């Protein structure tokens, strides 16, 4: 639900073309396909080999890129560029945190965009400060670009590889100078990044395959964990900088990635259907109808329906205008958020309902949905969650609620069931998630085991406003 | 799809409270629930028995009503008000066409909001002009209010009843002065209008029941065709002005009304499921999976799946950001509208797909969706439409395309099938629609039989810019 | 000073061209030249003989007319149009009060714009209401257009002349249908209106001559009091509807009209210089320097300097950015309005200053300016006002403060002097004003003698929000 | 004239208070008083000793600082801050160039704002790049802050003094960390900077004294050329880092600084009056009236009138709305810029006019004004310019036109006279400027003698878009 889901922090994108093309137009399409990965800011950077133009701002892709901005980016001989969609906390300044970040260095102009987090950013930043560096933001991105710039005698590829060796955490990055595009993933491949090819020989890198499709490119493969790839003379070059230890984030399959994405060869919608099937076997129930929380529970509800034999139905109507800002009418009516978004249809009247969703964060939203169904005449409401309980923070680019707000980190299953008012409640097991996805995954937010390390002290979101 | 669906022209709303209450807040909620009936403009008018305040503008409810506007409307002793959401063609002036329309007359201040059309508006307007009247818009609404004002010696109720007797067409209207709220439907009840009651004794009138729910009211009944109702001294009064000949618009059940609406006692989602079931029996097909065009085909796809036994699946991903304005990247990429909104999921790969939607207007969108599925690996695509072919214009408030653009009015079934590239194509029969809804309905856009008359000459959308 | 000057209520404009021309562009220039007569709203209406397009909104001319709006108005065969700048009280609705007002009547589309007020508007409105008319605004303009429309069997010229005979007060009006432009003044000629001719044979009507100049027209003459003029077949036609009793508003020469205007053959700047000269003779003083309050006191200060022989100097700097909205920093700093706008220059240090301005309304601003001069080292401050004290409200289109706020209507000269902290204070006499202007003028705001009548009861500014 | 005047590049401001105060409110007032020094962007930075908040954007002070932005800056315990108004070329990105620039360094958070230019910025930037630094803008400001940060073992005061020793050119700078405010001028004192004291013991630094006045501070003195001052424990400390060679910019007195400013003890308005007096003696003429180009020529016109005995009059009306953006009506009417801003009053009719202005850059504007006067009936027009001809570019923070556009660098006096259509033309001599100001000044734009050096190669305005 709005405000009660873990949030992805970014989508990234890069394109390289053998001949002049509408790079800004391509990036614009790709960013639109990655809008779900970040709604707070969007930006892109384009080069023709000489000029480098960047445009970025707070807002949705469709808000940031009007005709005037796109015209600024439309260099007649444009051949390469990178793009970014960003989730971030609010604050007018934070506009300056929008990406791509563009700097001039001894290697010329560099632009960078990233998804994820470095767990040792603080230590590296401190060492750079002592060397005389200055930072204008609190972005990890600025740390990485300063690290690369420090190796002023190495080539851009070598300096980037060296930075990869020093940085720890879960991150995917795209990077460009005036001629070359680079893309890389951390050694665990926590955040996704795929490679695509366009018919005329161009290369595209994106967080998810649907961006490739919209840009007219075919999926080639995922960037490997620990790999650095770049385009030189039209060829894709690869350097396996670090030994791969693949543990991609399970939540990409559970919720984040689009339903038409395929990551590491595994379709997200298909794995969600399988999660629902496993869940139906792990936690069966006698009921009349399986109802998804739209849209996040649809895949798992279909799976639950298939495995249980119970009919799937559309028991919750989602108001398509609910995403917009809406002035809450009065103090007394504040509690309407869920009702503005969802309404139970008469299809649930007199029925025993299995309600399927993908997660419970604070529990308040789930409780309100259960109540909606009861008000509409559901006789029983059985809640089935297609993932384990979220108990731990993510240090690799996901904004879960603070740990003390995570209901599962402080309450038992029975307490949660009572809190949300369900007749029964069940979560999918960790084994169930693994089985449904079918590959190695990071489950740190469920079990606290962090494959790519964690910060020495838990990082607090620092604003520029705070002390240095 | 965007730009390829018939469009409802308005949602209307009224509230009357026995004691001072947050009328603006209630109307705001109700309008949000009626947003799907009109996205171009929104407005409301509130009174405390002395002052009458109106705020209206082009835009979505959430855009028009910011804090400042709501504050203007928040009279401390507010007791009644009306609201409106409007679909209209673009044009900066047309802001002046937003409703409610508020006028001063010999009966004091009157405000009016309406949904639908008068087929004899032109003749009545001409007669009023000759009597010295002036018109500031080309709205039917202004014709009605002038007609009522002309009866300066009758009471508001009597004058309104007299106007009902003179006006022909399909329309629902809400009307207020500083003390009273009135609501009425044409004698065929073409456009919906329901009556709700709030726990404290207040009355609410709305185009659809979900507006009542969000405003904390319970559905009492539909306003009857040809009935005029009003609230006086806290009591609901009724006058059956015209003999009822009920033929409500079938498209409300097929597509327009929300999936959680119940009109004339018949649930829309349930009737859509039944349309899918009847369609599966009328036009069965051997296939692997039933895929809805989201969101309009979901109900019928569930019905088709149930009646056919074929599995329902989520084969088309709908980008939730697609409704927003989006600068088309270049001339060459213009054709991307459908791809920006929909993407086929890998669930259709290697499958024979039954694609379920509720209508085909021009055919171009349907053709592109069929192609999306084939590109994603569907081996066969069988299109099933849960309504008959649209062949005729609507004169009662729906903006279908012009007749020559309606593919079904100029092409045979086989021609349409070839145009959209489907393996097979079938539409639900008129009898099937009647059976699925289960009551008398207007099917004029399918069969050209207009129960509430039609204009002597087909009206052209007149802009203020054009000659008087 | 900002917020402490009488305010003109409107500027009006009309153009007629023998061949297609850029009517919108011409009106745009003319409105810019009339911006000082109304800053709250602007609008224009253009016709090519068939279409009539209107664009209007709250804001300055430069804000209302962006490229998009001008494009709407640029009919390829445009030949005539009218325009308006408006001062009005704030309120989001009041957008609907912007002019020109465009209506459809039995005479076809009519557009009207006016400057001034009808003192018997209320009675006429009541009679129209009883005849079945409805009103959408509280503008006098809507009353006039309804009055004209009521004469549905008369020609537009005859109906307008008939309306002139019924309306009382001080007003200038421009009016158009799709072919003709009309212009008229009340029988006292209270508000200005001039006729201009363009080299190619076109006609222009405007509140002040500088609008003609910017539109490339030469001043022909003033419209006579009580005269109705119109363009037919390229000829200017005239009908002296009412016997003229010329008493044009003296404040046009004292303050409102631009310094480069010539009204009734009398230059405003020249008359202001003469007011200063007469004032220097009526109220001489020993001093070192004559300092104008910029910009309103410049003309009179030059005259005072010439007649007195005292040197003119630039003792007050006016911040050119002060007109803009400015967020007052804190409650404690609220009193800064004058300081944000004006600052004393070192030129006044150690000097005995004659401070020249054109009016004192509430007195607070004058008091603060006197203090500014003393703070900067002026040893004496002698205030000279180039008009008599304002004691009475204007019923002919000027928004003076309410009578109880007019310091001169409740305080003696000596009390005002003490209130503003001046060493001496003198106002120009009524005789002095007459002498400096040199023609018959309305001095009602100084002496309470209303040549064009006054309302039976003092009209209160009615908002739409109030009862009908 | 609009678009035909040399433009100041910046205004700077700093405040330090012994106890918590409304620093943002004070800076807001001060920036408003410095608006004339830069209209493209505004910003401020505030600290309470712990937090540092910055808000900046493109636009006027009144546009950038709305309630929301001021609230962001209103730390309850705020004690110090700096502010900036900026002139810059357009371009959406350039928002990122707005000042103050805020960075984190080994010395903690630093904020900096500057006025002027470093002539050796390019060399210093190159050396920093080679040391691994990255730059996000092309601002000189970022060079200076990186230079300071490089001295990571020196204190902030020592590091700043060291940077002053390395930087060449004409510049004034304010700088802050979380506790201290610093202010400095280059060794020639080219750009102004003054010190003020508030009654409660606070310190203020500003480009011009009127900012002090509005902030409630008294002028103490100018910062000396080559001096670094800072506030520590409430005391003002001073370090004369470089030997002073005072040559402040003459154009501050001629045109840039406000008419109520006093710089280096010399009032600007008084010196302008003296320039007019000297000019009248250097280039006397028989005429009837002295007319200033408002507002820039007023001071000199008063002086010319006094010395010549010819009457001063207001022969050009300046439209107070002319500063706003205004859509040019059509291609054909493009040439209206001057007419939209200025109009001749009838005061010049039949007169021999002395037209007084402070500069001629391209000559086109002057030519149009001469024509305006002739069109209004002036029989002769004698142009008198209160400064020498501008022939050379400024490298110290003023944006004159490019040298080839400077009419005086390519044309003789007689050619210019003919170009602008004047009967006679005279410029004030260099000696005349020196005499009127009465102290040593930089006259580089008149004589090409650059006291503070010049770039090895003439710097081109680099955009981020261009190569690094």
Automatic annotation (TrEMBL), chains A, B, C, D:
<keyword id="KW-0479">Metal-binding</keyword>
<dbReference type="GO" id="GO:0009113">
    <property type="term" value="P:purine nucleobase biosynthetic process"/>
</dbReference>
<keyword id="KW-0460">Magnesium</keyword>
<comment type="pathway">
    <text>Purine metabolism; IMP biosynthesis via de novo pathway; N(1)-(5-phospho-D-ribosyl)glycinamide from 5-phospho-alpha-D-ribose 1-diphosphate: step 1/2.</text>
</comment>
<comment type="function">
    <text>Catalyzes the formation of phosphoribosylamine from phosphoribosylpyrophosphate (PRPP) and glutamine.</text>
</comment>
<feature type="binding site">
    <location>
        <position position="357"/>
    </location>
    <ligand>
        <name>Mg(2+)</name>
    </ligand>
</feature>
<dbReference type="InterPro" id="IPR035584">
    <property type="entry name" value="PurF_N"/>
</dbReference>
<dbReference type="GO" id="GO:0000287">
    <property type="term" value="F:magnesium ion binding"/>
</dbReference>
<dbReference type="InterPro" id="IPR029055">
    <property type="entry name" value="Ntn_hydrolases_N"/>
</dbReference>
<feature type="binding site">
    <location>
        <position position="394"/>
    </location>
    <ligand>
        <name>[4Fe-4S] cluster</name>
    </ligand>
</feature>
<feature type="active site" description="Nucleophile">
    <location>
        <position position="10"/>
    </location>
</feature>
<dbReference type="GO" id="GO:0051539">
    <property type="term" value="F:4 iron, 4 sulfur cluster binding"/>
</dbReference>
<dbReference type="InterPro" id="IPR000836">
    <property type="entry name" value="PRTase_dom"/>
</dbReference>
<keyword id="KW-0004">4Fe-4S</keyword>
<keyword id="KW-0808">Transferase</keyword>
<feature type="binding site">
    <location>
        <position position="296"/>
    </location>
    <ligand>
        <name>Mg(2+)</name>
    </ligand>
</feature>
<dbReference type="GO" id="GO:0004044">
    <property type="term" value="F:amidophosphoribosyltransferase activity"/>
</dbReference>
<keyword id="KW-0315">Glutamine amidotransferase</keyword>
<dbReference type="Pfam" id="PF00156">
    <property type="entry name" value="Pribosyltran"/>
</dbReference>
<dbReference type="InterPro" id="IPR029057">
    <property type="entry name" value="PRTase-like"/>
</dbReference>
<dbReference type="InterPro" id="IPR005854">
    <property type="entry name" value="PurF"/>
</dbReference>
<keyword id="KW-0408">Iron</keyword>
<comment type="similarity">
    <text>In the C-terminal section; belongs to the purine/pyrimidine phosphoribosyltransferase family.</text>
</comment>
<keyword id="KW-0411">Iron-sulfur</keyword>
<feature type="domain" description="Glutamine amidotransferase type-2">
    <location>
        <begin position="10"/>
        <end position="234"/>
    </location>
</feature>
<feature type="binding site">
    <location>
        <position position="358"/>
    </location>
    <ligand>
        <name>Mg(2+)</name>
    </ligand>
</feature>
<dbReference type="Pfam" id="PF13537">
    <property type="entry name" value="GATase_7"/>
</dbReference>
<protein>
    <recommendedName>
        <fullName>Amidophosphoribosyltransferase</fullName>
        <ecNumber>2.4.2.14</ecNumber>
    </recommendedName>
</protein>
<feature type="binding site">
    <location>
        <position position="445"/>
    </location>
    <ligand>
        <name>[4Fe-4S] cluster</name>
    </ligand>
</feature>
<keyword id="KW-0328">Glycosyltransferase</keyword>
<feature type="binding site">
    <location>
        <position position="442"/>
    </location>
    <ligand>
        <name>[4Fe-4S] cluster</name>
    </ligand>
</feature>
<feature type="binding site">
    <location>
        <position position="249"/>
    </location>
    <ligand>
        <name>[4Fe-4S] cluster</name>
    </ligand>
</feature>
<dbReference type="GO" id="GO:0006189">
    <property type="term" value="P:'de novo' IMP biosynthetic process"/>
</dbReference>
<dbReference type="InterPro" id="IPR017932">
    <property type="entry name" value="GATase_2_dom"/>
</dbReference>
<keyword id="KW-0658">Purine biosynthesis</keyword>
């Amino acid at each position: 639900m709005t405000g009660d889901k873990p949030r992805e922090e970014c989508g990234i994108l890069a394109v390289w073309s053998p001949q002049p093309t509408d790079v800004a137009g391509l990036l614009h399409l790709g960013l639109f396909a990655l809008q779900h990965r970040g709604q707070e800011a969007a930006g892109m950077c384009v080069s023709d080999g000489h000029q480098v133009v960047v445009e970025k701002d707070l807002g949705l892709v469709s808000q940031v890129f009007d005709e005037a901005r796109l015209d600024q980016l439309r260099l007649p001989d444009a051949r390469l560029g990178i793009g970014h969609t960003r989730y971030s906390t609010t604050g007018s300044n934070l506009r300056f945190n929008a990406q791509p970040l563009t700097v001039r260095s001894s290697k010329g102009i560099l632009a960078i965009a990233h998804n994820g987090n470095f767990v040792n950013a603080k230590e590296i930043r401190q060492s750079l400060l002592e060397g005389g560096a200055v930072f204008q933001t609190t972005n990890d991105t600025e740390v990485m670009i300063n690290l690369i710039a420090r190796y002023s005698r190495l080539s851009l590829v070598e300096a980037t590889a060296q930075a990869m060796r020093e940085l720890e955490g879960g991150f995917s990055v795209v990077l460009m100078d005036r001629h070359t595009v680079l893309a890389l993933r951390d050694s665990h491949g926590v955040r996704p990044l795929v490679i695509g090819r366009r018919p005329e020989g161009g290369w595209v890198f994106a967080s998810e395959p649907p961006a490739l499709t919209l840009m007219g490119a075919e999926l080639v493969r995922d960037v490997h964990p620990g790999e650095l790839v770049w385009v030189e003379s039209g060829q894709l070059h690869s350097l396996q900088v670090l030994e791969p230890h693949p543990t991609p984030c399970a939540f990409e399959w559970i919720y984040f990635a689009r339903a038409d994405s395929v990551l590491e060869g595994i379709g997200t919608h298909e794995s969600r259907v399988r999660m629902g099937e496993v869940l139906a076997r792990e936690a069966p129930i006698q009921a009349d109808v399986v109802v998804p929380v739209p849209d996040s529970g649809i895949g798992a509800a279909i799976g639950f329906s298939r495995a249980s034999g119970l009919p799937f139905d559309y028991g919750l109507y989602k108001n398509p205008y609910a995403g917009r800002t809406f002035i809450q009418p009065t103090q007394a009516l504040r509690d309407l958020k869920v009702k503005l978004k969802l309404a139970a249809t008469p299809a649930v009247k007199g029925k025993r309902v299995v309600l399927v969703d993908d997660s419970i964060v604070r529990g308040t939203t789930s409780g309100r949905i259960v109540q909606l169904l009861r008000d509409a005449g559901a006789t029983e409401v059985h809640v089935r969650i297609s993932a384990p309980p979220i108990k731990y923070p993510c240090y690799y680019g996901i904004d879960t609620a603070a740990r003390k707000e995570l209901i599962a980190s402080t309450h038992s299953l029975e307490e949660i069931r009572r809190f949300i008012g369900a007749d029964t409640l069940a979560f999918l097991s960790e084994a169930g998630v693994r089985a449904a996805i079918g590959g190695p995954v990071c489950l740190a937010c469920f079990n606290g085991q962090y494959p790519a390390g964690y910060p020495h002290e838990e990082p607090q979101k620092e604003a520029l406003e705070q002390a240095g």
